[in-house]
Structure formats: structure tokens, C-alpha cells
Automatic annotation (TrEMBL):
Protein name: Methylglyoxal synthase
Listed GO CC annotations: cytosol
Family annotation (Pfam families): MGS
Lineage: Bacteria, Pseudomonadati, Pseudomonadota, Gammaproteobacteria, Oceanospirillales
Classification via NCBIfam families: MGSA (TIGR00160), PRK05234.1 (NF003559)
Keyword ATP-binding on entry: no
Role of this protein: Catalyzes the formation of methylglyoxal from dihydroxyacetone phosphate.
Reactions the enzyme catalyzes: dihydroxyacetone phosphate = methylglyoxal + phosphate
Organism: Halotalea alkalilenta
Family per record: Belongs to the methylglyoxal synthase family.
The enzyme's E.C. designation: 4.2.3.3
HAMAP family reported in the protein's UniProt record: Methylglyoxal_synth
Amino acid sequence: MADQRPTRHASRVLPARKRIALVAHDAKKDELIGWAGKWRETLSRHSLLGTGTTAKRLADALGLEVEGVMSGPLGGDQQIGARISEQRLDVLVFFWDPFSPQPHDPDVKALLRLAALWNVPVATNVATADFMFEAPSMSKDYPIAIPDAAEWVASRI
Ligand SMILES: O=C(CO)COP(=O)(O)O
């Protein structure tokens, strides 16, 4: 089969006030909470969501509103992936655990795949998350190229 892939002829803007998903596997939750505490002020200027357990722990620790979707093993990664496909998510901070196999590994992979496909900024560890949050683009509109879905469908009919 030909290596057919979508062009990135479409674009969208990641707004100044970003929709940020925060997710961590169990062994990485303390690290994420520690990191988020450091960036609490910045995070408070954005709109936050997370997988069920992570969202609850962050909301308790930070005193910020964090919308909780389903817990990861119950489908939360897929819900966040859907938001990416629908262009309703702007940044993903996902401290996935490189040491523990997860029962929902396919979901984890699917989420990371959609973030790569849709050109959504992703941080998977503290250093990258720091770099990302230090970037001026975090507080400004930032245009990104995305797959041209209409062109993709037209090319397949
Ligand atoms: O498993 C997760 C991400 O893959 C996270 O889910 P919880 O935040 O519910 O623990």
C-alpha cells in the first residue's frame, strides 16, 4: 500500500489561554504534582483538565479547578485523545512511566500518537515541561500547522 499520509496544509491557533491536559501514571504522580506546584501561577492562567485520579490529586494539591475526565485505565487517555482530534486541546503534559507496563498501554500509545499527528506540544518529563512553560508561546496565540482533514477525505474517495 502506498505511504499515504495527510498534508499539513491546514492550521489552527493555540490560544493564549490554553487548554492543558495533565496526566501522570501512578509512580509519576508525585513528580507531576511537584512540578505543577512550581508552575501553579502560570497554570492558573490556563484551562486545566486531567485523567480522573491525576486531576483530583492536582486540584487538591494546587487549589485550582482541574476538569477530570475518566481515569486512564478506564478510558481517560482516549477521551483526551478525542479532544486532540477535535482540536479542543492545546498542550499535553503526560508523565508516563517508562518502568511499569500499564494495562491500558494501547490507550497510552494512541494518545501519544494523536498528539504527534495533530502537532500538539507534549512534555513527557520535568525538563521538557519546564522548557515548554518557560517559552513565550505559552502565554500568546501560537499558530500551528495541522493535517488537512478535508483534503485527506477528498483524496480517499
Ligand atoms: O493512567 C493514566 C494515564 O495513562 C492516568 O490515569 P489516572 O490519572 O486516573 O491515574
